[in-house]
Amino acid sequence: MSTSVNHLKLIDFKYVKNIYSIKKPITSFNDSLEVEGDKSLSIRWALLASQATGKSKAINILKSEDVFNTLKCLKMLGVKIKFYKKICEIDGLGINGYRFKKNIILDAGNSGTLARLIMGLLIHTKNKIKILGDKSLSQRDFYRVITPLEKFGARFISKKGKLPIIIKGTKSPKSIEYRENLGSAQCKTAIMFAALNTKGTTTIKAKKSRNHTELLFKYLNIPIKIKKQKNYDLIKVKSVKKINSLNYKIPSDISSCAFFIVLTILAKNSKLRLTNVNINPSRIGIIKILKKMNAKIEFKNIKNYKGEKVADILVKSTKNLKPINCPTNLNSSAIDEFLVIFLIAAKANGVSNFKNLAELNQKESPRLQWGSKILKLLGIKTITNKNSIKIFGNPNLTVNKKIIIKNFSKDHRVFMTSVIAALAFGGSWYIHDKDSIKTSFPTFLKKIKILNK
Questions:
Q1: Does domain 39-178+186-196+242-248 have CATH number 3.30.470.30?
Q2: Which residues are known to be catalytic?
Q3: How far is 360 from 170, CA to CA, in rounded Å?
Q4: Which CATH class is domain 13-37+251-450?
Q5: Rounded to whole angstroms, how far apart are CA atoms 286 and 275?
Q6: Residues 6+ apart with CB under 8 A from 68
Q7: How far is 96 from 193, CA to CA, in rounded Å?
Q8: What is the pLDDT of residues 86-129, one digit of tens each?
């Protein structure tokens, strides 16, 4: 048996054949953390920088597999990229400036964001491009981007709308009108990226979802108009001949911060400040939900940075957590955080209901089912179907048994949620596929160590 990291001071935390074991809950802490850059913004910045004219630089870009796969794909398309110190520099090729050999293959790994978004930038390419993904990504739906991108004139070869997919662009992509009903920011962004290469104006009636792309377009002076409606945004994007380069300090990812927010709420007598976090209103569904459940969370030092709201998040341990009938209009802004939100519901004094969550099962694993499975292993009663879950909370929840988590399609969020559950509730846990965290949060376990000095 070998150990790749130091033992935590108060947590029995071992690494054996890519399995972590946790045998004691975390003790109280009072600390501050800075989490790595936002994954959504890191990928969007890199893709837009590749289409810009001139050099773009990013500080605090997330150094995860998803982002590195983005940079590898861009290099395959002829983009020059280099790292020095904490800066990533991309030498943009301009609109439709990609230069590459015939029949290249782009491997998106586990990143649905990369695979779907880059298709929007490839609708004008002359040669065929094959896009691959790992086993998990290859099981996910791509019709959601194939359908609108075909309307621009691009052609696709795929089996049942799944990877691998071959894309061949069109010489004269045309502007389109499209209604996006899924609340998928990836679908919406792929269409917006494609619109940059067309003649005329593309109109999208999009169900509300995270709006990082819209904010970046505005900051870069890309012609975009947005009319907000009750459940949809009407977005109009005109084609451009040039995108300005963008120097960007990427704020921390609230999806990564979510694990520490929940751990702090559930831990005893603890307090945590998370610094320089992206609190974009389309991403803070978790904060709104947890506040409704009586969690002690505050924003401090709020500021605007290149269109994005950024702040420190102060979190405190919370007793007397309340159950929730979660408003479905918060689903899209908390879609990546529901697994850890379910842990709060497990500790609440009453029954919580979450509905219209079928989109959770379009992620790396069937997350709604995994959320239910983790709760049942904790001893929490749930009633779960294809798109909803009812959680019967227990404010006195503690665990005193062996729990094994495995065969979860290497879903990074299942792994991290299991770690938080083990630290919060106790028990003897054996969690497989530790390397899954490289997808989005490679330093997750190092941050856990900081809270246990």
A1: no
A2: 336
A3: 34
A4: alpha beta
A5: 17
A6: none
A7: 11
A8: 899 999 999 989 988 788 999 999 999 999 999 999 999 888 99
